[in-house]
Amino acid sequence: MVDTSRGDVPAPPVEEPRGCLFALSQPPLMIFLTVVGSLLLMAALHDLFLL
Predict the structure, then answer these.
(1) Other C-beta atoms within 10 Å of 20: how many?
(2) Which residues have a Cβ under 8 Å from the Cβ of 29 and sit 6 or more positions away?
(3) 14-47: per-residue pLDDT in tens?
(4) How many angstroms separate the Cα of 39 from the Cα of each of 15, 36, 44?
(5) Residue 19 near residue 25, CB atoms below 8 Å
(6) In this structure, which of 9, 16, 40, 51 has its CB flanked by the most CB atoms within 10 Å?
(7) Contacts of 20 (CB under 8 A, 6+ apart)
(8) Do 51 and 45 meet the contact criterion of CB atoms below 8 Å apart?
(9) What string of DSSP letters covers 1-51?
(10) Taking the mean position of all CA atoms in its chain, how far away is CA 15?
(11) What pTM, to 2 d.p., does this model score?
């Protein structure tokens, strides 16, 4: 059997890709989504009760 190793140098650790849950855990994004959601809620309530 042929030895195909390249010496004793370890392979660099592979970082796992970060998904959607990591993005949603960021405070600036959550603040932005809260502001947009509250504006949509206020617009919907205005349409329902005042128009």
Answers:
(1) 7
(2) 23
(3) 777 777 777 777 888 889 999 999 999 999 999 9
(4) 38, 5, 9
(5) no
(6) 40
(7) none
(8) no
(9) -------SPPPPPPPPPP-HHHHHT-HHHHHHHHHHHHHHHHHHHHHHHT-
(10) 16
(11) 0.56
